[in-house]
Amino acid sequence: MRLTVNCFSLFLFLFFLFLNLQTLTLTGFMVVEESSVKFYHFFSLLFIPCLFLRSENKLLKVPAYIFEYFAGITVISILLFLVYPFNRLIINHLFAFYAFIIGYYIAGAVPREQIMNVLQKAALLVFIIIVGKLLFHIPEIKRFMKAPDGHPDIYTLYGGGTNLEATWLGLNTALFSNRKRLFYLLLVVTLTVSVIYASRVGVVIAFLVAGFKFISATTSRQERRAIITLGLLSLLAFVFFIDLDNLAEKVYALQRFAEFGDSSDKGMAGRFAMWRYYGTALWESKLLGYGAGNGIYAVESVSGIDYIEDNLHNLYMQLLIEFGFIGLFLYLITVYNISIKALKSRLSNPIAIILLVYFIASLIQFRGTDALIWLYMGIFLAIESNKVKLAAHDQ
């Protein structure tokens, strides 16, 4: 008995959709972020029988550097938990590995075109839900526009608030990089949502995605010429016809860019408040780390300060202080291998753009347990592996 390709596609559609509905739990949507079993955790269990229905009589082989990374941080955490407090975030890391296996397995059995079609349909549904959701928050949006401070109080589908929702919208926009008109429409939606949310990172990620789309193999010369022409015209319009100072006063998102790094920038102030103790905490661990999820515990134990943040807002710093130099090194090997494959593909695979932007955005957020990203990684590596096998077979 074997599951059909249609069943794989349906599972991928729903699993990807539920991974985007991050605040959906077994009891409904969370009003505030809290520790809870998410609906996608429960739904993912339906995939376990698939692992025993392979046509080949052998285990699923994932890339060695992926297995070594997860095996390494698991062993490191188990040893460090003998000294430091146990943190359940290690379970999130293991689930991320499970999400990778799901993506790697399905992309090995389903054609690339079908995979991308499924992901695009699910992502488009998420875009529609978010835009529709904003209509119910018009009173709050109007209030925020009149007296902006931080971010508007809007319920989000993604854990972590409006900043993370704008981030994921920007990343998912890249899925449509081979759909010219739809890509630019969704890029405008992403930028609009990021401005409403006053999310600097959302705006930056949207432009990063657009930049990688510009240099990708899917962009024609005519399209590049049109983009350059429109860009130059827009620049001239801003220089000669638009009062940037006046515009920044009216658009709070632009004002937040102008405030970057100064005393009124609460976001960066919070990061600097943690990072000032980072070196001391890292040195006290002898560069061996504190175990999964104990990054904030490390700086709190050194500083004696309780921070409201649950991560260091820099994935590479987070991995170094939690898993030491060994854990960070294993992750950088993964980043290197995936980045090389992405660049060799000339970014013709939309997921390559997502992963490269994620690696860059990890300098200011994320904590490495993003199951959605690891699903993307599994799909991307399986697709690239299939391309190599197909090329070798044709020879």
From TrEMBL:
Give the transmembrane ranges.
Answer: 37-53, 65-84, 90-110, 122-139, 182-215, 227-244, 315-335, 347-366
Q: Which UniProt keywords apply?
A: Ligase, Membrane, Transmembrane, Transmembrane helix
Query: Is the GTP-binding keyword given for this protein?
Result: no
Principal subcellular localisation of the protein: membrane
| One Pfam family per UniProt | Wzy_C
The terms under GO molecular function for this entry are: ligase activity
GO cellular component terms listed in the entry, alphabetical order: membrane
Compartments in which it is found: Membrane
Keyword Transmembrane (UniProt): yes
Membrane topology listed for this record: Multi-pass membrane protein
Which residues belong to any copy of the O-antigen ligase-related domain? 187-332
- Protein name per UniProt: O-Antigen ligase
The species this protein belongs to is Pontibacter chinhatensis
